[in-house]
Design goal:
The complex is a heterodimer of chains A (253) and B (315). By secondary structure, chain A is mostly helical. In chain A, 75% of the residues lie in helices and 0% in strands. In chain B, helix 3 packs parallel to helix 5. Classes of the chains: A mainly alpha (253), B alpha/beta (315). Chains A and B meet through helix 1 and helix 5 of A and helix 2 and helix 3 of B.
């Protein structure tokens, strides 16, 4: 195993985060804080509890998940897209690194960045809203598992994209609506029955539900199903990544 | 001696159906400087990219440093350094970080002393903490070379290394390439500057339309295919080549003031002596005479413009 190669890619990506601290960390933290202020403190104080949890606290897992998904995708997709765009991908392709090592480097760095950001947002939320974490181990496990899964998804988008527009289209046009409709701001039990059924086709429902369970012990769907669905999506992403490297799709002609 | 690069019956057809390489066979030996010449689109970069692992190979076998590029790709790629044609560098990294990154990527542990040596050899030491985006084109080219040398490769590919660089840097690079060769590095060079190949290469390969049409030692190539030319400026204008000279490969310039005699560089000078004697007998006097030997460029242009048997048959 070329551990030096994995380390080189990982450190290169982490250095990019340090160089762009404002964009990588500060910007998502501030925008998520605005949600806490508006929906948690201002509007939340006038709303009733959900499952005996104050509204401000109820939306925290969903908002952390929103940032985690967006950052996992954007970090990983940019990480692999930029070398393709600038032409420096030749170096990775000509180096003695296996596909697994390339994925470990890029996806590992994207996951680390997303998890760090998720924890910062969680810590910042404490400034605005009082909350508790019932199952810290599972909370962290969900955080990492989701970050890994969506970093892989971002990696796939980065390889598929042949322009900056495509790079943005999936996070903005697909992931954001799925998160907003996936129970970030409400319990899907509050929806009419037909919409409850439709919501179950939204994979983000399972992520938020499982994550919220780790905080408060309440969930829209059973936690086992949440873990199972996340693992299904992880497996799907791994299969696509394996296929990409096997065929050289958009990497090797 | 086992070749450092061995290519056997290599073909490459891209997805669109374009055949970039046709049954390419090539062997490059340790410690030699091999210049691969060919017009644009001839397949030089495709061949290099396949050997380096950037492009998927088609049929055939390719080995680098004795290792199969498919089955033993780690060892094969680890022995190769590549300086690509384009200036593809990370703009925001410092020179030191960019070069160290490549060393790590190629599986080598950090060795600051080696990075320092490479940067000093390439006159980049003073720029080591500068971001690459702040460097000139020539300096960026040096960074590309430093990156390729960072992991101490046994084989170095230089794809158009001096494209767009000034004369001084070009000379520096030639010097550096010679030093690398002295240390045992095998160097494969593609270039549009034929003088570069003429100056540095031990052997020349010519690729045209995806086929290697010639591989020869440079000196033998020059003597085998090279021509010499004798130009005689006449005292008096001639209307046509005298009948006594029509058997010789001689031409009269359009204005009638110059006779041009062409002969193989391998050929003994007997033809020249005979020509001069005949001119004396014919009382044709000349004011001046010049000889010129054809360059590698002349030979290259002649080779690539020569039609292949297939091309001739289609006409």
């Amino acid at each position: 195993m070329n551990l030096y190669g994995v380390k080189a890619i990982y450190q290169f990506e982490m250095a990019r985060m340090r160089r762009t601290l404002m964009q990588s960390v500060l910007s998502p933290v501030i925008s998520t804080c605005l949600y806490f202020v508006v929906f948690g403190s201002a509007i939340g104080s006038r709303m009733g509890d959900i499952d005996s949890i104050s509204y401000g606290a109820y939306i925290i897992p969903g908002l952390v998940m929103l940032s985690l998904l967006m950052q996992s995708i954007s970090n990983a997709s940019f990480g692999i897209y930029m070398p393709k765009f600038s032409g420096t991908i030749y170096e990775v392709l000509s180096a003695p690194v296996s596909y697994i090592e390339i994925v470990l480097g890029y996806v590992g760095a994207a996951t680390t960045k997303a998890v760090i950001l998720g924890l910062i947002i969680l810590a910042t939320a404490r400034l605005f809203v009082d909350y508790s974490i019932l199952h810290p181990f599972w909370m962290f496990s969900f955080l990492v598992l989701t970050a890994v899964t969506f970093s892989l998804f971002g990696f796939i988008i980065g390889i598929w994209a042949d322009g900056f527009e495509k790079l943005q289209i999936v996070p903005m046009m697909i992931v954001t609506p799925l998160v907003f409709l996936g129970g970030t701001f409400y319990s899907i039990d509050m929806l009419p029955e037909i919409w409850q059924t439709i919501s179950l086709f939204n994979p983000v429902v399972y992520l938020i539900s499982g994550f919220r369970w780790a905080f408060y012990g309440v969930s829209d769907v059973h936690v086992g199903i949440s873990v199972g669905m996340t693992l299904v999506f992880l497996t799907a992403c791994l299969t696509i990544v394996w296929w990409i490297f096997k065929t050289g799709y958009r990497l090797r002609s | 001696m086992q070749p450092d690069i061995s290519v056997k019956h290599l073909n490459k057809i891209y997805e669109g159906g374009f055949q970039a390489l046709k049954d390419v066979n090539l062997e490059i030996y340790p410690g030699e400087i091999f210049a691969l010449l060919g017009p644009n689109g001839a397949g030089k970069t495709t061949l290099i990219s396949i050997i380096c692992g950037i492009v998927n190979p088609g049929d055939g076998e390719v080995k680098a440093a004795g290792y199969d590029i498919r089955k033993q790709y780690r060892k094969a790629r680890g022995s190769i350094g590549l300086v690509p044609q384009e200036l593809n560098t990370d703009s925001f990294e410092t020179v030191w970080d960019a070069v160290s990154f490549t060393r790590g990527l190629f599986g080598k542990p950090p060795k600051p002393s080696h990075i320092e040596k490479v940067l000093k050899d390439l006159s980049l030491w003073d720029k080591r903490n500068n971001r690459i985006m702040s460097l000139s084109g020539g300096m960026k080219r040096r960074v590309m070379i430093a990156k390729a040398l960072s992991h101490e490769p046994r084989i170095l590919f230089l794809d158009e290394p001096t494209a767009g660089v000034d004369v001084e840097l070009r000379r520096d690079m030639w010097e550096m390439v010679r030093k690398l060769r002295e240390n045992g590095t095998t160097i494969i060079l593609t270039t549009h500057y034929i003088e570069e190949a003429e100056e540095m290469a031990d052997r020349i390969g010519v690729i045209r339309q995806g086929q290697i049409i010639l591989v020869e030692e440079k000196d033998r190539l020059m003597s085998k295919l090279g021509k010499k030319e004798l130009r005689l400026q006449l005292q008096q204008k001639l209307d046509q080549v005298p009948g006594e000279l029509t058997l010789e490969p001689i031409e009269l310039s359009n204005d009638g003031w110059e006779l041009v005699y062409t002969f193989d560089s391998q050929q003994q000078q007997a033809g020249v002596a005979r020509l001069l004697r005949t001119l004396g007998d014919l009382e044709i006097e000349y004011r001046d005479l010049q000889t010129r030997e054809s360059s590698l460029e002349d030979i290259f242009v002649g080779l690539v413009n020569e039609q292949s048997p297939q091309e001739r048959s289609t006409e």
